[in-house]
Design brief:
With 228 residues, the protein is an alpha/beta fold. Helix content is 21%, strand content 29%. The protein has helices spanning 53-56, 59-66, 74-82, 149-153, 172-182, 202-212; strands spanning 4-9, 12-17, 20-24, 45-47, 69-73, 88-91, 96-99, 102-108, 125-131, 136-139, 159-163, 186-190, 216-217, 225-227. It starts with a strand and ends with a strand.
């Protein structure tokens, strides 16, 4: 079973697997690197890692138009329901549940999570997705380095998606340390290049990962797809 992961720019991703389309942090409107207009986005599920505007993004508009179910922490799903999103599923850190696209577990992430209007966005999270064919994807979302990434790695990660932008998240050096802790089969950098403050040489980072670890690192341009 092929699972296709498309980078939509910044930290926004589209995953097509098991006949389901999953969007992660669909920040499209106002995203200078976005390759897809919010009005053209389709989804069965939307995952929101935390409350910042560059991650909640177009979730409300897309969910209302498509009828997608939005999965996030309790505080964010409560907020989304007040914005008129009909289908939400609240979870919290460490919890897991089966969905049509696979089993989803919310992992810890070291970050903040205030919503765009100042409301409480609860705790930020990353996503561990156990696909229906048994393979595992870890999207770390916005986070600093933390030693418990080693525990996530014990799951046997086939693909990790890690931020490298620095300033707001891990930078290249800590992201390399994260690769060593997780030891995924493959890794793709994300959350870089959107603005000057998170500008990074992703090709140089990938070269470092490939030279000093056994993980296969790949750079995608916004709009490109990686087939797992």
């Amino acid at each position: 079973m092929t699972t296709a992961l498309t980078w939509l720019g910044h930290s926004a991703w589209q995953i097509d697997t098991a006949g389901q389309r999953v969007l992660i942090d669909p920040f499209l409107t106002g995203n200078p690197t976005a390759t897809l207009a919010a009005s053209a986005a389709t989804a069965d599920f939307i995952l929101v890692s935390h409350g910042h505007g560059d991650h909640v993004g177009d979730t409300v508009a897309i969910a209302k138009r498509t009828g997608a179910t939005v999965i996030s922490n309790f505080e964010i799903t409560e907020w989304l329901a007040k914005q008129g999103v009909a289908k939400v599923h609240p979870m919290n850190t460490g919890g897991a549940r089966n969905f049509p696209f696979g089993n989803l577990k919310l992992t810890i992430a070291h970050h903040t999570s205030m919503l765009p209007d100042g409301a409480n966005g609860g705790n930020p999270c990353g996503f561990l997705i156990r696909l229906n064919d048994g393979r595992r994807i870890y999207h770390a979302a916005d986070t600093g380095l933390f030693l418990d990434m080693q525990l996530i790695g014990e799951e046997g990660i086939d693909l990790a998606i890690l931020p490298i932008g620095d300033n707001f998240t891990m930078g290249p050096d800590d992201a390399l340390r994260a690769v060593r802790l997780i030891n995924p089969k493959a890794v793709i950098p994300t959350h870089f290049g959107t603005w000057d403050v998170i500008s990074q040489d992703a090709q140089a980072w990938v070269a470092r990962v490939n030279s000093v670890t056994s993980t296969h690192a790949v750079v995608l341009k916004p709009g490109e797809t990686y087939n797992l």
